[in-house]
Amino acid sequence: MSYEYFLQAHVKGAPQGIPTERILEVFKDYIVAKEETFIDLEFSEGNSCSIYLETEEPNNSGFMISRPCGDKLGECLYAVMLLGNFVFFEPDGFQMIVVAPDVEAHLPEDMVASLGKPVVATDLKSFLELYANNRE
Question: Superkingdom of the source (predicted)?
Fold first, then answer.
């Protein structure tokens, strides 16, 4: 069964381009395969997932994590979110998560209207707690 998480970066309601090399740098120790449209990550035995992003583009404003796993994935996602005005959300999640209070002002109005007001994770510990408890 597949499940997905999403990260998107916005500035003034529009996509915010984040340098792809900075995103890939966060995951570099865990990349086991890299193609034009995805990277495969392996954190430990039984903890692997795929991230779909345009690896050859200079910038990316978001990506999808397919088959999210445990181990250090949450820490990596938090590190990526610090690179821009990122919001984390999942299809069955209770809420969107941001890592700074001012990020909400950059999100598209229709996104907030449909997914609700995001909650702010002020540090890694609070992010990991929200991330781990965002579904029933």
Answer: Bacteria
CB 116 within 8 A of CB 136: no
| Contact criterion met (CB below 8 Å) for 6 and 79 | no
Both structure tokens of 58: 């200079």
Q: Is the domain defined by 4-132 classed in CATH 3.30.310?
A: yes
- Name which of 81, 40, 43 is nearest 62 in CA terms: 81
d(CA 92, CA 99): 20
Q: Is the dihedral of CA 78, 89, 6, 8 positive or negative?
A: negative
CA dist., res. 18 & res. 30, Å (int)? 20
- Between CA 49 and CA 126 the distance in angstroms is 23
* Domain boundaries of the chain, sorted by first residue: 4-132
Taken as a whole, the chain contains a residue count of: 136
Q: Which residues make beta-bridge pairs with 48?
A: 42
The predicted-structure confidence for 121-134, as pLDDT tens digits, reads as follows: 999 999 999 998 88
pLDDT, tens digit (0-9, with 9 covering 90-100), for 42-56: 999 889 999 999 999
Stated pTM of the model: 0.94
